[in-house]
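pasting for the record
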Amino acid sequence: MESAEWRMIVSGDGDPRYKGGYQQMGLRVRSSRVGMAGLEVGTDMLAKYGTTLARIHPVREALVRATESSLASIRDTALTQGFRPPGVDWDRYELGMSLLHSIVRVLEEDRVSPATRKALFRIIVRNNLFLQGSWEAKEGFKARNGCYPPDIMLMSPGKGCNLKCTGCYADSGATREKLHWDTLTRLIGEAHDLLGNRLFAFSGGEPLSYHSEGKGVLDIAERYPDSLFIMYTNATLIDDDMAKRMGELGNITPAISVEGLRGPTEERRGKGVFDRILAAMERLRREKVLFGMSLTATRLNSDDLLSDRAVEFYFDRHGASYAWIFHYMPIGRSITLDLMPTPEQRARLWKRSWELIRTRRLFIADFWNMATVTEGCISAGREGGYWTVDWNGAVMPCVFFPYAAANINEAYANGETIEDIWARPFFAGIREWQKGKGFHGPDKGDDSNWLMPCPMRDCHADGRRLLLEHEPEPQDENAREALNDPDYAAGLMAYDSALEKLTRPTWEEEYVREGGRSKGSPAG
């Protein structure tokens, strides 16, 4: 489809509404008959025949080249508009390229079931990447609130877990604390219908340990076939029947938690866990379930987390399609600042991640080091961002910022919805802070540095100020003790000072300076 209208859809030329704006592609496609027709036909065809087409070399190469050209056009238009620092537009382009080639790999290697292939194109590509959820719901939200809603609702429906990992951020274990099924389904239903969400995440506790009224998280995925569910899991409960059902559903993807290879994983999670994880991955491969890794970076393992050996093991040998990187955060069980990756380790992990994205086109996302792609912190229900609800109904800005603006059970009892909670002053205060850090376009006079985006750790003085101003309820005693511990605050502020000193030159040279990220090297 090489019409002038399609080129406008891809690039955004000719319509000032789309300059640097939120969800530009979704707005353009939705408002264009050509765009919608092309999207419907293209995603339907790829959902049915994607694996076959990907294995025909000339067809695959033509489709890849056309998509690469579109991504480059989007990048070049964004660079010309100058809405974001130029290095940010390069990062977004590179991550888009890695997603494209990751999709091509799973199709070419026949790694996904027919249901998963349908979810890949109808839900991930169509509903989320292009249309970004229900625009009727999003426009209604904007009319009521003045901005678009968050894109993702993360739920931790149960605190229970069959493991007891060192330093668990949720302090999970053998407990019955959980959301009732009716509350969980209402919560997801409101996010789906009022906010237009088509992307959800399950965390925990262990999501597969959750049961209420005889139902679990796979029943949620079955109830919402137009949505994708990412499930952060230790994978040890994935048996043959569960893997088979995931392959038949197609719209749930496990992100399996590890700390690297066998040694560091079992040191944190327990002896014998690694073999159970490998068995689960074998079952998922057999049923052609799309799965990835959830990698926890600590001071003890961060330099080895993305080693050649680890990357080959998970991506090449065992069939992982993506990886999320989570830094150890000083919250939850046995809080310590000594397990956080040092500023120097973070810098090396940043460099290594972008090296793999650029050279191997692996889809790797680090929620702290790669906040350049998301224009900073995405918490507190930020436009296009996310927020979270835990097993007791605490509605919080982030699983790593464990202080609640409200409780969903109490809100429902009072006749409120999640949209009412979204407007609470604590969340609104964080969203204003995000704007001050450059979200929606940094000004030359602000102090944005998206290499240190987190108000809980990277900008702890700001996060603490927001906590003291709004007095949200701590999620548990661990969070309460951290808030009242002067040594905890002093340690994090010292960490932030060192991180700012290390990352500020990189931010200025690689991102703000014209051409800094276009040289093809993560080091500049």
